[in-house]
Amino acid sequence: MAPALFLVPAALASFILAFGTGVEFVRFTSLRPLLGGVPESGPDVRQGWLAALQDPSILAPLAWDLGLLLLFVGQHSLMATDTVKALSSRYFGVLQRSLYVTCTALALQLLMRYWEPVPRGPVLWEARSEPWATWVPLLCFVLHIISWLLIFSILLVFDYAELMGLKQVYYHVLGLGEPLALKSPRALRLFSHLRHPVCVELLTVLWVVPTLSTDRFLLALLLTLYLGLAHGLDQHDLRYLRAQLQRKLHLLSRPQDGDAE
Question: Is the pLDDT of residue 178 over 60?
Fold first, then answer.
């Protein structure tokens, strides 16, 4: 097994890459469509759906974007299978989770950096006339802020250090074993049913936009299908989530020893 001097920097590098990718994902999904990071063509040069399906200048970037999405979904799903997990654990040991996080971040970086907008394509909806042109973007902006705050809050329920692969390396260096071995059966059951703990909030970010362009529709549709297939919660999981959230909020609201004195 690799020494701790190698394991710790590798896990930290994976975490930093994932954190930076998360920040970039917020810009890609929220700031760019809401603040107009990509110039859009006017409605007079946009094509209808029938014409768009026959226009290579629209179909080519859509096919490229679809390939990027399938690459991300394929990587995210394939590396989560038991077979690949066993192989990566065999060769990378305690860094198996960090490897998964790194590959996911790289796949998402490719998706965001090489995504092709389709400004001439048809749109499903667009807020153009007043007062909608003013109030709809503002409402979307507020809902995106609320959604991202909820996403960060929900992560309190989950073991974020373990999701990022840091806790596995920390426990290994200290000789504490595998963190999952210390989880309760209810927690393991929840993790097996819920691969994406912020499904509803991500769907809000994907769909609630002032203008739903063709490429945005493709992005939202495929990720919605993927999130839906990966979601299998039942009432037992929801009760466990609620109990864990209440416990974490109680711990955060409890005064510290120094404050009580």
Answer: yes
- Which residues partner with 212 through β-bridges? 125
Among left, alpha and beta (phi > 0; psi -120 to 50; other), residue 3 is beta
Within 10 A of 195 (CB to CB), how many other CB atoms are there? 16
For residue 164, pLDDT beyond 60 = yes
How do 125-126 and 211-212 pair as beta strands?
antiparallel
Q: Could you tell me which residues are beta bridge partners of residue 125?
A: 212
- The C-alpha atoms of residue 131 and residue 139 are separated, in whole angstroms, by 12
Q: At which residue do the structure tokens 């998706």 appear?
A: 111
| Cβ neighbours around 7 below 10 Å, total | 20
Amino acid at 156: L
Q: Maximum Cα–Cα distance for the chain, whole Å?
A: 73
The Cα 166–Cα 90 span in angstroms is 18
Contact 100, 165 (CB under 8 A): yes
CA nearest 115: which of 207, 29, 21?
Answer: 29
pLDDT score for 7: 85
Tell me: pLDDT of 256 over 50: yes
